[in-house]
Amino acid sequence: MREPVLYDPETDTLLVEIRPWPAASAAEINEEVGGEDAEEGLVVHFGPDGKPHAYEIEHASARPELVARALNALRAAKGYAAA
After folding, report:
1. Cα–Cα distance, 74 to 4 (Å, whole number)
2. Beta strand extents in 1-83 (DSSP E only)
3. Closest Cα to residue 55, out of 23, 24, 16, 8?
4. Residues of the chain with confidence (pLDDT) below 50
């Protein structure tokens, strides 16, 4: 099982996977699916179903508000109330 939160200290990038990849077939796995800049330093990645899959935070150590938002989205996706 993959960890839902991955941090790369070399690039100071945090990836928070808020739900498993929803691909149902090999064709969908290879489909070009990207993300969009939600705001400065935050990219939201979408699955082939058009729903958010992961939050990618650039310069994460300087953006605690974005880290909190991504972790709250993960908590909500897992069925926990937001803090």
Report:
1. 8
2. 5-8, 13-17, 35-39, 42-46, 52-58
3. 16
4. 26, 30
